[in-house]
């Protein structure tokens, strides 16, 4: 026998296996019965049209001749890639996304910093800043269409009174100015989202860390770039990625302001798809839609990977 006594192992209490009773099954069937209308609604109005669109992308599906819809395979995608408009649409899409996201991030960050400090009537200012996010994107496009009107738009009126221009500018009719006009409208619309997300992240920064840095002699700018921005960097990355997905897939502002014109200079990939739909070329439009879906899946994969890294910290 050794000096140390061997302790007897504790007997683990064995619980009887849980058996599904008739009441539990009836309860599950009741829940399924209540959820079935929502499941049928989502499947019928979301997944069925999506699968039908994937099917149409590989057929010569034209509204003006529905008697013959032969299987063409990848021919619709080849037609899109060989279209002379495709390089212009691809470039416009990149300009639309990058030109919208960067100003939204910078302005939204500055607005969030301004609302981070406590001051009188802070809640009123927050409500006024966050209100545009509740407005429909198509309505925002209609409002800015009137604002950029060449004859009686408020944009030309302000620029003329300020002495910036000498004659009214045809914002939506000039190919060189149309993309700038729609990007300005989208920046105004998307700044609110960045301000909301960044302000929520700023409010999670510990005050003790900022106070300790101030005691050590760190100025406002040093604290901003050394403490605040690194602390909320994950939120900034996720917000930019999520907003990029929405901007890539949001044609309503452009469609309301220019409908892709003039001369296709404001066409992005989704407005180009709408144009094919109006022409009755459902096969080509479905091919564009399927391509957009693949790009969005890539964006979503990056977003989910970033969220997974955040949750692992």
TrEMBL record:
<keyword id="KW-0762">Sugar transport</keyword>
<dbReference type="InterPro" id="IPR000515">
    <property type="entry name" value="MetI-like"/>
</dbReference>
<comment type="similarity">
    <text>Belongs to the binding-protein-dependent transport system permease family.</text>
</comment>
<feature type="transmembrane region" description="Helical">
    <location>
        <begin position="282"/>
        <end position="306"/>
    </location>
</feature>
<keyword id="KW-0812">Transmembrane</keyword>
<feature type="transmembrane region" description="Helical">
    <location>
        <begin position="94"/>
        <end position="116"/>
    </location>
</feature>
<feature type="transmembrane region" description="Helical">
    <location>
        <begin position="28"/>
        <end position="47"/>
    </location>
</feature>
<feature type="transmembrane region" description="Helical">
    <location>
        <begin position="128"/>
        <end position="148"/>
    </location>
</feature>
<keyword id="KW-1003">Cell membrane</keyword>
<dbReference type="Pfam" id="PF00528">
    <property type="entry name" value="BPD_transp_1"/>
</dbReference>
<protein>
    <submittedName>
        <fullName>Multiple sugar transport system permease protein</fullName>
    </submittedName>
</protein>
<feature type="transmembrane region" description="Helical">
    <location>
        <begin position="223"/>
        <end position="246"/>
    </location>
</feature>
<dbReference type="InterPro" id="IPR035906">
    <property type="entry name" value="MetI-like_sf"/>
</dbReference>
<feature type="transmembrane region" description="Helical">
    <location>
        <begin position="176"/>
        <end position="202"/>
    </location>
</feature>
<keyword id="KW-1133">Transmembrane helix</keyword>
<keyword id="KW-0813">Transport</keyword>
<keyword id="KW-0472">Membrane</keyword>
<feature type="domain" description="ABC transmembrane type-1">
    <location>
        <begin position="90"/>
        <end position="303"/>
    </location>
</feature>
